[in-house]
Amino acid sequence: MIKVCDVVCPDKRQAFLNVSLSRNTVADRACDLATNLHEQLMEKAKDFIAFSLAVDESSDTSDNAQLSVFIRGVDSDLCVTEETLGLKSMHGTTTEKEIFEEVSKCVTQMRLPWDKLVGLTTDGAPAMCGQKSGLVAGIREKMQGENCAESRQ
């Protein structure tokens, strides 16, 4: 960076020398950015009139299951927000119950009301879309427990 600075903007050399790039500083900055993005999404989510979720489970290079949860929300001005809601490493077996619990945690942490959930997209895995068990069945049961309209399921 300093060599580039010497060529591109030599008058700013000292400013570049003052930037700390230690492992802890970079990690702290990454955490600060993630926290800020989460807070921004929470603020936007307060205004959602409806939202949908997309959930996918895949394996990483170490053969560990990774659960990805994405959200698409729309506010009263029809402004659409799409973001990653959660990414969870699942160790061992990934049962229908564990998947539902992680998705439910994501929704709860974002303080999203279940009655505003209008859609759910999953991969075709049985743990996701089983009729009597699975993520879809768990969300259907949760929505019934929350007295959400039957037509939205």
List the helices and strands and how they pair.
Elements: H1 2-8, H2 13-17, H3 23-45, E1 48-59, E2 65-75, E3 80-90, H4 96-109, E4 117-122, H5 126-129, H6 135-145
Parallel strand pairs: 1-4
Antiparallel strand pairs: 1-2, 2-3
Helix pairs in contact: 4-6
What does this structure look like?
- 16% of the residues are buried.
- The protein is 42% helix and 26% strand.
- It is built from six helices and four strands; from the N terminus they run αααβββαβαα.
- The chain has two domains: 45 residues, no CATH class; 105 residues.
- The protein starts with a helix and ends in an 8-residue tail after the last helix.
- With 153 residues, it is α+β, with helices and mostly antiparallel strands.
- It has a four-stranded mixed beta sheet.
Strand residues, percent = 25-35%
User: What pattern of helices and strands is seen along the backbone?
Assistant: HHHEEEHEHH
User: How many strand units?
Assistant: 4
Q: Strand order of the main beta sheet, please?
A: 3-2-1-4
| Residue share in helix | 40-55%
What is the residue-averaged pLDDT? 85
Q: If helices are DSSP runs of H or I spanning 4 or more residues, what is the number of helices?
A: 6
Terminal CA distance reads 54 Å
Shape: elongated
What is the structural class? alpha+beta
**CA-atom Rg in angstroms:** 21 Å
Question: How is the biggest beta sheet arranged?
Answer: 4 strands, mixed
Our count of domains comes out at: 2
- Contiguous uncertain segments of 5+ residues: none
